[in-house]
Amino acid sequence: MQAVRMRTWDARLIAEVGVTIALAGVLHMVKLWQMPQGGSITLGTMVPLFILALRRGPMVGLAAGALYGFFEGWILSGGKNFYHPVQVILDYPLAFGLTALAGFFPRWPAFGVMVGSVARYISHVISGVVFFAQYAPKGQPVLLYSLGYNAFYLGPDFLIAIVLTLLVWERLGKIQAARA
After folding, report:
1. Cα separation of 64 and 123, whole Å?
2. pLDDT (tens digit, 9 = 90+) per residue, 30-48?
3. What contacts 82, CB < 8 A, 6 or more positions away?
4. Which of 12, 13, 82, 92 matches a 20 to 30 Å C-alpha distance to 6?
5. What is the CATH number that goes with domain 11-179?
6. pTM here?
């Protein structure tokens, strides 16, 4: 599917961003697994963000991802996972904003989703190393702990996101082809 890109923030694009954030929020509430110190496997929280980035490009995706990060951090979680301002930025607006990297690869959506997912993972790992070292078992390197902890829930979450994003992307391509 060819990406539909817009250069101006008109009412349609703003509405699409709003619907994307709302859909991601609803999908975030369907938790398949919850981790003890934060993080969860969901029913495709990132799918709407990836679809928007693939359709509208990385800048729109970045704005929507960062806004969704604020929404999840302050509204959905009630701010209960805030330890430091930099940690909040790494775990919420930056992590979800990085899903926008998928927007650079609309012709290869699986690759784009993988790039966006890995970038989000790296943001969470950095946060884990810097702000959550106290949870690492004694004697275990903090980096290895953070890599493992975040991979445990983000790996399955990313697999769900890749499968669902590709299914939706393929369907959107068929709809667009039928309209042409």
Report:
1. 17
2. 999 999 888 999 999 999 9
3. 73, 88
4. 92
5. 1.10.1760.20
6. 0.92
